[in-house]
Amino acid sequence: MSRLADVFDSSTTAAVGIFLVGLLLWAAGGWAVVANDDVYPPLVKLALLSTAFAIQLTAQQRPALAFGLMVALLAGDLAVSPSLPLWIALADVIFLAVSKGSDRLGVVVVWFSLILTLGGALLAAALLDVRVGLYAALAGVALTWSPLGYARAVRASRRMARMEREAARAQLAVLDAERSAALGDERRRLARDLHDTVAGHLSAVAILSEVAQKEPGNTTVLRSIRAGSLAALEEMRATIDLLTSPDDTAVTTRLSSLDGLIDAAKAAGAAVAVHRAEGLELPTAVEAVITRILGEAIANATKHAPGAPLDIDLRRDRTRLVITASNPIEPGARTGEGNGVRNMMFRAESMDGSLTADAEDGIWRVCARIPLGAA
């Protein structure tokens, strides 16, 4: 709105300035283009100046109409005696018509300026002499082509500014989309870590609480409940630290953190066996990922197959680490790809690895293959 107001004010100022110039030319005896050809009485001059001023104001909102009226006014004036103030006003109307009007109006103005400049020069050369024809051509360039060129430059500048605004809006839209995607990724990351850490311990605590209700004097179960609760709190602190880190590998997670889940599974009646190849050294990032995978596998086994033996095997297959967790399941037991399985797959794929989880011959088996050289 402020830019439109600025343009309006500048256009009005130009119209007022041309009106004042016309009055000065009138007072100085320079009204007529051709010397000693001033035939208009004062009232007609005032009417012509006022009409030109009104046309200039009209050109700010309706440039096509104003250009047509100005051409008609000049045609009548030319038939009687060309008036210099009107031709000066024409320059302002041409500028407004090209800068504010449509592309079609701009083409019309270009052809008008071309015909007027060439026609006036040729006519003056034919009726008078070549020198007058040259002066007429220069006057045509000054009064028509100069404002026309300036108006086209202004129009191009506006078009460039509009393109820049559109590009800025498009860039903002991309940034908004990226921000929304980042927020979504962060929410999924938070849900994944809460599920893989805290939820596993709390699930084990819930199972052990059922055992404690059946065996009130079993102190081993009570100790496991307490250990599981403390482990859940510790995992919650680790998750909070994780949210402030750039990626999952920034938080060091060791296989030793699985001891609480293994103890809870044993307290629930399961026999957990962990087989780790001798001399197997694990990079920190790989160990963090397989800890999360095995933690989910132990929690699922404790929840869905309580009391069933769980066998965990870690071995090296050339450049890959192969992790297998298997436990028997009852016929008709619920299987499928819940959040836990999807999270395990995500963990493995984040290290350029793979993971499968399915039931075969009454055995639920989770098998992950992760490159040891993964970063």
What does this structure look like?
Residues 1-8 have low confidence and may be disordered. The chain has 10 helices and 5 strands, in the order H-H-H-H-H-H-H-H-E-H-E-E-H-E-E. Helix 4 (84-100) packs antiparallel against helix 5 (103-127) and helix 6 (130-214) packs across helix 9. It is an alpha+beta fold. The protein folds into 2 domains: 2-172, no CATH class; 177-371, Histidine kinase-like ATPase, C-terminal domain (Heat Shock Protein 90). Strands 1-2-3-5-4 form a 5-stranded mixed beta sheet. The longest helix has 85 residues, at 130-214.
State the separation between the terminal residues, measured CA to CA.
Answer: 55 Å
Biggest beta-sheet profile = 5 strands, mixed
Given the helix and strand composition, which structural class is it? Answer: alpha+beta
State the total count of DSSP E strands: 5
CATH architecture tag of the largest domain = 2-Layer Sandwich
CATH class of the largest domain: Alpha Beta
What sort of overall outline do the alpha carbons produce when their principal axes are compared?
A: rod-shaped
What name does the CATH topology of the largest domain carry?
A: Heat Shock Protein 90
Helices, strands, pairings?
Blueprint (H helix, E strand, L loop, with lengths): L1 H27 L13 H18 L3 H18 L3 H17 L2 H25 L2 H85 L4 H25 L15 H9 L4 E5 L7 H21 L5 E8 L2 E9 L10 H12 L3 E7 L2 E9 L4
Parallel strand pairs: 1-2
Antiparallel strand pairs: 2-3, 3-5, 4-5
Helix pairs in contact: 1-2, 1-4, 2-3, 2-4, 3-4, 4-5, 4-6, 5-6, 6-7, 6-8, 6-9, 7-8, 8-9, 9-10
